[in-house]
Specification:
By secondary structure, the chain is mostly beta strands. The protein is 9% helix and 23% strand. Strands 11, 12, 13, 14, 15, 18, 19, 20, 21, 22 and 25 form an 11-stranded mixed beta sheet that branches. The protein has a 3-stranded antiparallel beta sheet with strand order 3-4-5, with no helix packed on it. It has a 3-stranded antiparallel beta sheet with strand order 8-9-10, with no helix packed on it. The termini are far apart. The protein has 7 helices and 27 strands. A hairpin with a 2-residue loop joins β4 and β5.
């Protein structure tokens, strides 16, 4: 009966609705029927009397039957669900189901239009559960480095930089209330730092004073804990001074008397102290050891001079004097060296490394000719190491050689010096001869074998451990002494006796290229009635019945001042007017070797004292 009444009401409504086209059974139409929500003809107990009543159609935009709504679509969540029931009802706790239980995206609410409205998201970092925080509207477990402080983190700056206030473990860098996180420096000498409890950053402490003990055998130096050692720049306990004040501080960091050169006492920094402040007596005026060498072999060379010589022509030995002539002249040099009458010495001025390995500052080479020092006894004729030689005053000035080769260099024992003008005194033909060499250069090796050792004896007062190279070599490839020997000096060298009076080996009167010459006599200088080596260089010399050339006639090859073209006058001599003051020169090249030696400018009589390192002073060995 109820069903029938409801159908009638629906029919009546349909009849009254002009726009409706749907007819229902029982209302004079056989159209389809819709059963409203909650009504079902098949329900037990239904008498079936309403079978002809109309049924609701959800989605047709017509509110029918038991429909709460009908928005004409099947979209859920828009206020009207696809079963034509409201999405939510705010007043019905059972149907107010908008909350998604995610606290981080805010609380959702049901609007008057029955739609679920999103809540306001909670800020990132807010706690949303045990060990969880809101991140982008979602509740997530926190992690160190995500820049969100979540328990048990103390901080989270998103980096792992140490000491910036928040460590890579998300713990404060320091905390004044935590004894394990105080600002204690790695080096105790840096001083205890302090923690800023706002920024949790350590402020540096005040370094401890130099000399403060910082451990066994250690002391503070400029904020660093350093081993107690002499020379560390700090006066440590037990020390009275500290280098580099070497003049008053010894190697054990104890004060010593200020060095006084010439007091006969070896003070700090002195290589020697012979009781005076003179040069050329083994120990110079600054108490530095005087490094001297004597050439134990000299030989004029044939062939071109090495690169670096100016020029490399070597006119004297390669174009003028032949092998035959060189043999005679070089033998004279050898005999003079062996006899101790030819003594060319070298002084290594400004040499810092006495072992002869390297030097890079102000090295020069002095060339000094000398004679045997009579105070040292008989010459043994075997060119020994450490013999004494006397340098005449004409070869020295102001305590230094007059002939100096500048621009000296020493690297890996290789010595070079020059170009400079020097004078050598050589014994040629039995007489001392001064060789003036223009643009002289020297190249040699300061030998490491035999090993450098302590010079014997001079001077007597040498610093402990002082060693000096023993020998030097100027006879290797590219080594030797080259320079341009002036016409004036060659005019003062007597012609060798063998070329003047030695029978068939003497120069013959041959035309062209040879003249006869007069020997000046043993130890005699060139005079108006005897010939010089220059005469033979200009006139030439052939020996063995004029079959063998000893000297080819040649003119100087290096321009200077004076007569350029030399001629022979009376007695087969170059006139003095042509040779005197003539700086035109013959290029030359010679090789040499040498031993360590000593020089003096004082002469004394032979005494035992002079053999034990004492030096000659005003005629007395002291």
């Amino acid at each position: 009966m109820a069903t029938m009444i409801r159908s009638l009401l629906v029919c009546a409504g349909a009849i009254g609705a002009v726009s409706m086209t749907v007819s229902f059974t029982g209302c004079g139409s056989d159209s389809a029927t819709t059963t409203p929500p909650g009504d079902d003809a098949s329900v037990s107990g239904d008498d079936g009397g309403d079978e002809g009543a109309a049924k609701a159609t959800c989605g047709n935009s017509i509110l029918e039957g038991t429909e709460e709504c009908d928005d004409g679509n099947t979209t859920n969540g828009d206020g009207c669900e696809n079963d034509c029931g409201f999405t939510c009802i705010a007043a019905d706790p059972k149907r107010n189901h908008c909350d998604d239980a995610n606290a981080c995206n805010g609380t959702e609410t049901c609007t008057a239009m029955h739609k679920c409205q999103a809540g306001t998201p909670i800020a990132d970092g807010m706690a949303c559960g045990a060990g969880k925080v809101c991140t982008g509207g979602n509740c997530m477990s926190g992690s160190c480095g995500d820049k969100i402080v979540s328990a048990p983190e103390e901080c989270d700056d998103g980096n792992s930089t140490t000491g910036d206030g928040c460590e890579g473990t998300c713990k404060f860098s320091c905390l004044s209330t935590d004894t394990t996180r105080k600002c204690t420096p790695a080096d105790p000498c840096a001083g205890q730092g302090t923690c800023n409890d706002n920024t949790h950053v350590c402020a540096a402490g005040t370094p401890l004073a130099n000399g403060t003990a910082c451990g066994t055998g250690k002391t503070c130096k400029a904020g660093v804990c350093t081993l107690l050692t002499c020379g560390n720049g700090t006066i440590d306990p037990g020390e009275t001074c500290e280098p580099p004040s070497t003049a008053t501080c010894d190697a054990t960091c104890h004060t010593i008397v200020v060095a006084v050169c010439g007091n006969g006492v070896l003070d700090m920094g002195e290589q020697c102290d012979d009781g005076n402040t003179r040069n050329l007596d083994g120990c110079d005026k600054t108490c530095k050891y005087e490094v001297v060498g004597r050439m134990t072999s000299i030989a004029i060379q044939g062939g071109a001079a090495p690169a670096g010589c100016t020029p490399t022509t070597n006119r004297l030995g390669s174009q003028s004097i032949t092998g035959t002539g060189l043999g005679s002249i070089n033998q004279s040099l050898t005999d003079g060296i062996t006899a101790g009458t030819t003594n060319v010495t070298t002084m290594f001025l400004g040499l810092d490394d006495l072992t002869g390995v390297a030097d890079s500052n102000g090295l020069t080479i002095g060339i000094v000719s000398g004679s045997l020092d009579p105070a040292k006894g008989a010459w043994p004729m075997n060119n020994p190491i450490d013999w004494w030689f006397y340098a005449a005053g004409s070869n020295v000035a102001m305590g230094a050689p007059t002939g100096i080769l500048t621009n000296g260099t020493l690297a890996a024992r290789a010595l070079k010096a020059g170009p400079s003008d020097v004078t050598l005194t050589l014994l040629l033909a039995g007489s001392p001869a001064l060789l003036e060499m223009r643009s002289a250069r020297i190249a040699a090796t300061l030998n490491g074998t035999p090993a450098p050792n302590v010079p014997a004896p001079p001077p007597a007062m040498l610093a402990a451990g002082l060693t000096v190279f023993q020998t030097f070599t100027g006879s290797g490839t590219g080594q030797g002494l080259c320079g341009n020997i002036t016409v004036q000096s060659l005019a003062q060298i007597p012609i060798p006796q063998s070329l003047a009076t030695n029978g068939s080996n003497a120069c013959g009167a041959c035309m062209p290229g040879s003249k006869t010459y007069t020997y000046c006599g043993m130890g005699m200088p060139v005079g108006p009635n005897c010939n010089s080596l220059l005469d033979a260089l200009v006139g030439g010399c052939k020996v063995v019945a004029c079959l063998v050339a000893a000297i080819n006639p040649q003119q100087p090859d290096v321009p200077g001042t004076g007569t350029a073209t030399l001629t022979l006058g009376a007695g087969n001599k170059v006139p003095a007017a042509q040779s005197t003051g003539n700086t035109n020169a013959y290029s030359s090249y010679m090789k040499f070797d040498g031993n360590r030696a000593h020089l003096t400018t004082q002469t004394c009589t032979v005494t035992a004292d002079c053999q034990t390192g004492l030096t000659c002073q005003t005629g007395v060995c002291k």
